[in-house]
Specification:
heterodimer, A: Rossmann fold, about 35% helix, B: about 70 residues, mainly beta, Ubiquitin-like (UB roll), 5-stranded mixed beta sheet, two-stranded antiparallel ribbon, 1 helix, 7 strands, about 10% helix, about 40% strand
């Protein structure tokens, strides 16, 4: 398929991204560059200097809301994607409304309790909508340990499924970026394989 | 019973297990997890009352922090 055709097909889709940190910001960048039509991004956090070791933000954006800074950066790519942002803390109650109409939802949180909440809520409240989740990306090296697993038609997991972040095993740009781009890659696979092509 | 656990065939002595039994027998103690049986999400408060039997496709997914 020519890139023009890929972009044309992707332009009809809407992808939700839950979290605008290391996973969400980098996954969003890859999806926008590929030509996904609409991204819906939700996060409550503010850009801090310590985020810059892995997140798609810049020093002069510290103090900004992550979703606002990310929208600026994604719009600068100039691919024509529509970026809808929500400055909110995602809860069981609001997740279905925020991500209504999304064809795929990317789990891009840092905390494991939030990962659990997103997967459980979408599975229960938005049946049939695929979730692409990340689990295990701390530290460095070990390329061969990072995998992508299809659990079933509505759940995919990317990561080493083993390493939790800690002071001694922090999240760093390469592994976080790898997992974020693997999430984006799975999203493209799901969208380009889908039959109806509806956004 | 023979089941598929995380995409791999596994055999257990018992004819049936609850989700709790399975997690204990396999020492899957990490608490931040999703359990699905044949594609159906199992509520955490149903682990003791949900039975796994011959041929079931069981997925136990650990959600590690970091992002």
């Amino acid at each position: 398929m020519l890139f023009g055709e890929i972009k044309k097909r992707l332009s009809s889709f809407r992808v939700g991204i839950a979290g605008a940190g290391g996973l969400g910001s980098n996954c969003a960048q890859a999806l926008v560059r590929s030509g996904v039509g609409t991204l819906v991004i939700a996060d409550f956090d503010i850009v801090e200097e310590r985020n810059l070791n892995r997140q798609f933000f810049f020093l002069d954006q510290t103090g900004m809301k992550k979703v606002d800074a990310l929208k600026v950066n994604l719009d600068r790519i100039g691919s024509g994607s529509v970026i809808i942002v929500h400055d909110v803390t995602l809860t069981r109650e609001i997740i279905p409304g925020i991500f209504a109409g999304c064809d795929v939802i990317v789990e891009a949180f840092d905390r494991s309790d939030m990962k659990l909440l997103l997967i459980e809520t979408v599975t229960r409240e938005m049946p049939g909508i695929p979730v692409v989740a990340a689990s295990g990306l701390a530290g460095w090296g070990g390329n061969e340990t990072i995998t992508s697993r299809k659990i079933d038609k509505t759940l995919y997991v990317v990561g080493d499924e083993s390493n939790e972040v800690s002071d001694e095993l922090p999240p760093l740009a390469p592994r976080v970026g790898i997992v974020a781009c693997m999430e984006a890659n799975l999203v493209l696979e799901i969208l380009l394989n889908s039959k109806n092509g509806q956004g | 019973m023979k089941i598929i656990l995380n995409n791999r065939p596994e055999e257990f002595h018992a004819d049936t297990h609850t989700v709790d039994d399975l997690l204990r027998v396999r020492n899957m103690t990490f608490r931040m997890r999703i359990v699905k049986i044949n594609g159906v999400l199992i509520d955490r408060d149903k682990y003791a009352s949900t039975y796994i039997s011959e041929g079931d496709d069981v997925q136990v997914i650990y959600l590690m922090s970091g992002g």
